[in-house]
């Protein structure tokens, strides 16, 4: 046995000596000899050869991001004969725990100066160690990165992480918000995964010297030395890869070929769109808070891309205008549409889900109108509200005095509705009308159901739920002079303060500004309700009903560029009133106003009387007088709101065929006064 082993060892030595002799005699390197003896799996189609100095390893890396289409792009690229992924790595992720020297060895073995060597590592940008090693080993290699709308990326990651659980016992979305633990040891799933700007900034393509840029990158989780990397970045969005526009798709493919140095028309991105079945409905109104959070992150990423990254001459972006258009969608809620998107003809990626649900409800509504029994989608006929302290409570009480009308409570102590803010309270809302499911009573009298809520135009969740459940609902909205509205809201909140809170009242000047999600310091808040000058932008709320075109710069400027959702799915009509009309002392006009309201909601004539007395709140010793000198700064700000609101209503809203305004001349007279400070009125 020992003799055979010795002979075998001697044989191996002799073979190696023969190989070495051949190398020295013919001038070959060991590397070229290996390449000459192996058989390639791909044919060679290349006329031009790059600089030999580039062929020292990988020339391009597909570096991220997971669930953003990078694998799709890499596999499509791997079909091009000129491109070669190292054996055992084709179309697969190179594990970041594998050492780069071994990868370099693989690349060396597969080296062919007429091929482009590529690698796929969706974790490269996540791991600082992996990225550093790669850029130091291959400083001239190019990098391809795919990104995606942050919210869609989160949904895809979430579905991948928990698909084995089915739809039960799914973790709360907000529990994934925050920074992940050390990426070099573990890659957990969290919202940090789509902080694309943090990871891409590691490549050193931007100056990173301005206060603005550092502010956008202020959540950078790892201190990272700028790599000695000289390559280029090809940046493309997942939505661009899925683009059905043939012209843009062709432009993307040709630019990509030029970037990699491929033959013209050798790359084809055509593939079957992957089917993604989400575990949950991200467009559900219960997820609005989470979508708002993601929208804020998306806004920051889009700002860094636009203002910094895309200015680098080493960043290649296909169809740049389309890329920027898609970035605009990152700034908001992909389930709803904003006026900026309407003007730019941009459709949010998930709007179809919201509209489908609304359309289904709308069809059910019409199908039920021929029956004497209401369906849930036809349960409510009208709503009173839109803005607090604009006479909506009085209007609710007056409407409830009409026998045909039911406002949701058989007692005199009527209350406004808040159920529609929460998806899990929708059944509780419909239960209010369980005994009012008939359209007509035994005498053939039309029965009407209504409710009152000041949140209709303030709350995105409320409006979205209401439109989905009752897309044909009629709305009664009342407005008033912004300065008087602010005073009424402030004084109303006084009633809710205890003695301790009364000692530390904010100044009215501190309430100048927006009063919703970003109001945490300067607003007088109780039960999540706020007081600020932003609440008097009635035209902002009314524009959400999409009764105007929203396509001109003049209109957009009047609306202040707000980013609230626009609901074109609503099919109903709007009765708009100024509070002065409701309290009009001219009996003739007042009677006409009452008759117009009766006709609008469909009740008998002469049964509604807005002159009836209803309960009113008394005065409070801490009430403010808005006309006092200390409130002049806030009056000036409110006056600006009044001018813009009055102008928008007059020049745009009043042109809508779905708008009802009683005594139009008197209405115009009242809103014209919004352009002037009522404290200067001698009368």
Describe this structure in words.
The protein has 25 helices and 14 strands. Residues 23-56, 87-113, 182-188, 365-370 and 517-529 have low confidence and may be disordered. It has helices at residues 2-26, 30-37, 70-78, 100-109, 128-137, 150-162, 196-200, 211-216, 238-241, 246-260, 288-307, 320-330, 339-343, 351-368, 392-400, 426-431, 460-469, 482-494, 499-502, 538-543, 553-558, 579-582, 587-601, 632-651, 664-672; strands at residues 60-62, 83-84, 116-120, 142-147, 233-237, 315-316, 337-338, 382-385, 405-406, 448-453, 474-479, 565-566, 574-578, 659-660. It starts with a helix and ends in an 11-residue tail after the last helix. The longest helix is centred in the N-terminal third of the chain and has 25 residues, at 2-26. Helix 11 (288-307) runs antiparallel to helix 12. It comes from Chaetoceros tenuissimus.
Question: Residue ranges: pLDDT <50 for 5 or more in a row?
Answer: 23-56, 87-113, 182-188, 365-370, 517-529
Portion in helices: 25-40%
Strand proportion: 5-15%
Report the strand count: 14
- Tell me the major beta sheet: 6 strands, parallel
Radius of gyration: 33 Å
Query: What structural category do the secondary elements indicate?
Result: alpha/beta
Q: Which strand order do you get reading across the main beta sheet? A: 2-3-1-4-5-6
How far is the N terminus from the C terminus?
A: 122 Å
Overall shape: elongated
């Amino acid at each position: 046995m020992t003799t055979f082993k010795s002979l075998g060892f001697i044989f191996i030595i002799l073979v190696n000596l023969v190989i070495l002799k051949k190398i020295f005699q013919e001038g070959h390197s060991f590397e070229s000899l290996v390449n000459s003896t192996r058989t390639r799996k791909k044919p060679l189609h290349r006329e031009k050869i790059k600089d030999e100095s580039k062929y020292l390893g990988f020339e391009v890396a597909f570096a991220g991001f997971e669930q953003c289409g990078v694998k799709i792009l890499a596999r499509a690229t791997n079909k091009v004969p000129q491109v070669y992924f190292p054996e055992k790595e084709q179309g697969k992720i190179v594990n970041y725990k594998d050492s780069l020297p071994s990868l370099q060895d693989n690349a060396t073995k597969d080296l062919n100066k007429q091929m482009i060597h590529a690698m796929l590592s969706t974790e490269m940008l996540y791991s600082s160690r992996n990225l550093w090693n790669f850029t130091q080993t291959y400083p001239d290699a190019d990098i391809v990165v795919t990104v995606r709308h942050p919210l869609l990326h989160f949904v895809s990651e979430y579905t991948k992480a928990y698909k084995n659980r089915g739809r039960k016992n799914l973790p709360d979305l907000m529990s994934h918000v925050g920074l992940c633990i050390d990426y070099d040891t573990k890659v957990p799933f969290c919202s940090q995964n789509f902080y694309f700007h943090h990871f891409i900034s590691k490549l050193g393509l931007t100056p990173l010297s301005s206060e603005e840029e550092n502010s956008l990158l202020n959540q950078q989780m790892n201190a990272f030395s700028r790599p000695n990397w000289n390559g280029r970045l090809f940046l493309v969005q997942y939505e661009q890869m899925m683009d059905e526009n043939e012209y843009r798709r062709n432009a993307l493919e040709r630019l990509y070929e030029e970037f990699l140095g491929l033959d013209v028309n050798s790359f084809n991105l055509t593939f079957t769109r992957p089917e993604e079945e989400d575990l949950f409905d991200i467009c559900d109104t219960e997820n609005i808070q989470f979508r708002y959070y993601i929208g804020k992150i998306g806004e920051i990423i889009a700002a860094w891309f636009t203002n910094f990254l895309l200015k680098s001459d080493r960043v290649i972006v296909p169809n740049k205008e389309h890329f920027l258009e898609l970035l605009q969608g990152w700034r908001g809620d992909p389930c709803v549409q904003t006026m900026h998107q309407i003007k730019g003809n941009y459709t949010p990626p998930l709007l179809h889900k919201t509209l489908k649900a609304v359309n289904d409800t709308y069809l059910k509504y019409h199908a039920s109108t021929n029956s004497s029994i209401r369906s849930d989608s036809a349960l409510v006929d009208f709503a009173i509200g839109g803005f607090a302290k604009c006479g909506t409570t009085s209007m609710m009480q007056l409407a409830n005095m009409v026998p045909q009308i039911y406002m949701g409570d058989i007692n005199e102590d009527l209350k406004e509705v808040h159920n529609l803010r929460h998806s899990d309270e929708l059944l509780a809302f419909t239960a209010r009308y369980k005994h009012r499911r008939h359209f007509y009573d035994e005498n053939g009298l039309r029965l009407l159901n209504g409710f009152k809520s000041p949140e209709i135009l303030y709350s995105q969740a409320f409006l979205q739920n209401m439109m989905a459940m009752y897309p044909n609902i009629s709305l009664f909205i009342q407005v008033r002079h912004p300065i008087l509205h602010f005073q009424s809201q402030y004084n109303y909140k006084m009633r809710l303060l205890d003695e301790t809170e009364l000692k530390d009242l904010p100044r009215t000047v501190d309430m100048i500004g927006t009063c919703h999600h970003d109001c945490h310091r300067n607003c007088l808040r109780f039960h999540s309700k706020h007081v600020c000058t932003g609440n008097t932008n009635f035209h902002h709320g009314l524009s959400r009903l999409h009764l105007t075109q929203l396509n001109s710069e003049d209109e957009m400027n009047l609306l202040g560029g707000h980013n609230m959702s626009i609901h074109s799915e609503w099919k109903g009509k709007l009765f708009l009133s100024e509070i002065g009309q409701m309290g009009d002392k001219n009996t003739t006009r007042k009677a006409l106003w009452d008759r117009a309201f009766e006709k609008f909601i469909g009740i008998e004539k002469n049964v509604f009387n807005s002159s009836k007395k209803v309960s009113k709140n008394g005065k409070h010793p801490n009430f403010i007088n808005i006309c006092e000198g200390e409130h002049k700064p806030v009056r000036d700000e409110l006056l600006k709101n009044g001018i813009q609101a009055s102008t928008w209503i007059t020049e745009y809203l009043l042109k809508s065929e779905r708008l009802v305004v009683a005594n139009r001349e008197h209405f115009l007279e009242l809103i014209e006064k919004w352009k002037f400070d009522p404290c200067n009125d001698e009368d």
